[in-house]
Design goal:
626 residues; 4-stranded antiparallel beta sheet; 29 helices; globular
């Protein structure tokens, strides 16, 4: 049994509206509390009230219209037991998704995220507004985010079991901690359709917490925009402005500017970092090169979080360094370039297209009931893919003792999962054949790097039972998908970043961020999400240059392996080249690798590079697969 009511939602306030009159209207008869009025005026849309009749709703809307308030009347459906409350259009959308899931015999996961704050005076953003879009960027394109009300979101996505749900919770945690102010608390309830309920009401009723509440750990920080230095300004105001400027550079410096900060000692670095949130401090730490000598000392300081005593001379020294960076102009250029790239990414026609065979293979990968014959049939429809697959299977890469002549025979010998991943990676990598490489000095270099990284990644994973069979070969093949997008649509911008990286011996991704705020790994993740790739592959693409260590071992390990493989390939092939950019592992990546490879250090990396150089030489025939 469902009940229908009407709610009035305030979406916008006209520029010429009289705010005092609006406040007076909402204050009349205690229609809204002072806190609710503050929330209305700070972030829209917000629910103003709920009424029972259309006539009452229209009269209320007319009064608000006279005040310059742009509102909408929405029908709300509530089940009789009070398990859920949804706008009718969202209710109908959910019913449609459930029907599609039943017809496709798939499972759907419902995540209800409820936010609150330990500080009643803090105004959290409305879950009905732009926050939905920002939040959805952390998830796959196929996942759906719905604002239930001002304080609740519903995330709907494909999943198979509760383990998969835990991976989603980690992304929810990341979104909460990065998008919301400190001490924001998020309660996450979860249920699976159809296993735990066949109706919307059942799913809400059966929803149960995954783990403890998620809390944004950073302290509440109220930032006030200070005016530029003025005659007679207080010394305290000038100090605050100086600290704000220092904060800006420590969070935004990239490329050459970031390298300049690395010349500072840990004490000076901490003076610049101390006023940042803990997350910003750790982001800075994890960007450092893994062999940066001061990194361990800086990590200890960040962990202990000592109080910083004001030091005018040190602050002046920092200011002089920052002034010499002349970053303002660069930030404006960076912002404009980022806007152009983002606009192109949002144009679906501009994105690389996943080949048809790869799409069919992806569907087989996602279907636990798919037969060997179905897999073989799809592979054999593509003669080029069949030849590449048999060439790899018969190469030194697998070292099979006898020649394999058919796809079915390769499946029988190497296993279904191995051939699934290998075939999907090879077919997805066709994007390397279909893009314009005009202006590249060596068009084949990108493919050679990708196949080389894939070979190294697979060999590394064979030594690690924990992540063996995780799709490392596929991840290695497509980890630089973002470069394809940049080279095809922004060749001049990309080549400029590459040439500057070569000139100053810096990693290419650092120069990409200096020039246009994004790097090819971030762009690659966007493309991977558009392709609806598995989370493990998406993360490997996104984090193969920068990685924030977390507690989810299975999420962290594959990106770290791909970053190590990328590093080793560059170390092997660029050693003899003078016109090559620098290559390095970031401190955050190395922190994960130390968990995966016990005792790893510079000497072990040298040993790995020699071993992998031999393996690449033994598999040189695979570089001509395209």
């Amino acid at each position: 049994m469902k009940e229908e009511n009407l709610q009035i939602v305030l979406y916008r306030i006209a520029k010429n509206a009289n705010i005092a009159k609006i406040v007076s209207f909402f204050s009349r008869g205690n229609l809204l509390t002072k806190q609710k009025i503050k929330r209305l005026l700070s972030d829209l849309p917000r629910i103003v009230c709920e009424v029972s009749s259309q006539n009452e709703a229209e009269m209320f809307q007319a009064s608000l219209d006279e005040l310059g308030c742009i509102t909408e009347i929405e029908t709300v459906i509530t089940d009789s037991n009070g398990h859920f409350r949804l706008v009718k259009k969202h209710y109908m959308m959910l019913k449609k998704e459930l029907s599609k899931a039943l017809r496709g015999r798939t499972s759907l996961a419902f995540f209800r995220v409820q936010i609150s704050s330990d500080y009643p005076d803090i105004i959290l953003p409305s879950m009905l507004g732009d926050f939905q879009e920002k939040f959805s960027m952390y998830f796959r394109e196929s996942d759906t985010v719905i604002g239930i009300d001002e304080d609740q979101l519903l995330l709907l996505g494909f999943t198979t079991d509760r383990k998969g749900a835990l991976l989603v919770q980690n992304k929810i945690k990341q979104a909460i901690q990065e998008l919301l102010p400190g001490s924001t608390r998020a309660k996450v309830d979860f249920s699976i359709f159809p296993d735990e309920g066949l109706s919307i009401s059942n799913l809400f009723q059966q929803a149960h917490p995954l783990t403890d509440d998620i809390v944004s750990e950073d302290p509440i920080e109220i930032r006030v925009a200070l005016p530029k230095y003025a005659e007679g300004a207080s010394e305290r105001a000038r100090d605050q402005q100086r600290i704000g400027t220092i904060q800006l550079y420590f969070t935004r410096a990239r490329g050459r500017l970031f390298q300049r900060l690395l010349s500072l000692d840990p004490k000076t670095l901490w003076h610049g970092l101390s006023n940042l949130t803990n997350k910003e401090q750790r982001d800075f730490l994890n960007r450092l090169p893994f062999d940066y000598k001061a990194a361990p000392a800086l990590e200890k300081i960040i962990n202990s979080n000592p109080w910083v005593v004001s030091d005018k001379q040190l602050e002046k020294h920092l200011e002089e360094i920052i002034y010499s960076m002349t970053i303002e102009e660069g930030l404006e250029d960076r912002k404009r370039n980022a806007a152009s790239i983002t606009a192109m990414l949002n144009d679906i026609e501009s994105l690389p297209v996943l080949p048809v065979v790869a799409l069919k293979l992806f569907n087989i990968l996602a279907d636990p009931d798919a037969t060997i014959d179905a897999l073989v049939k799809v592979i054999e429809t593509d003669a080029s893919l069949t030849l590449k697959l048999l060439k790899i299977v018969n190469s030194a890469f697998y070292g099979v003792s006898r020649k394999i002549d058919t796809v079915k025979e390769s499946v029988m010998i190497l296993g279904t999962d191995e051939i699934k991943n290998l075939s999907f990676g090879l077919s997805a990598a066709k994007t390397f054949q279909n893009f314009s490489a005009d202006g590249l000095k060596n068009p084949n270099a990108l493919w050679h790097h990708s196949i080389g990284t894939a070979i190294i990644a697979e060999n590394l994973c064979r030594k690690l039972p924990v992540i063996k069979g995780s799709g490392a070969f596929t991840a290695g093949l497509i980890h630089d998908t973002g470069k394809i997008f940049l080279i095809e649509h922004f060749p001049e911008l990309y080549n400029n970043a590459y040439r500057t990286a070569v000139k100053y011996k810096l990693p290419v991704y650092e120069m990409e961020e200096e020039k246009f705020e994004l790097n090819h790994a971030m762009i690659g993740k966007f493309v991977a999400n558009r392709w609806n790739l598995p989370e493990s592959l998406s993360q490997a693409i996104a984090c193969h240059h920068q990685h924030q260590p977390d507690d989810a071992h299975e999420i962290s390990s594959l990106p770290a392996i791909i970053s190590l493989s990328d590093y080793l390939y560059h170390k092997i092939t660029y050693a003899a080249e003078s016109a090559a950019p620098s290559t390095s592992l970031a401190y955050g990546q190395f922190s994960v690798l130390k968990r995966v490879f016990k005792g790893i250090d510079s000497k072990m990396l040298e040993s790995m590079a020699k071993e992998m150089a031999t393996i690449l030489e033994d598999n040189r025939e695979l570089f001509s697969l395209t």
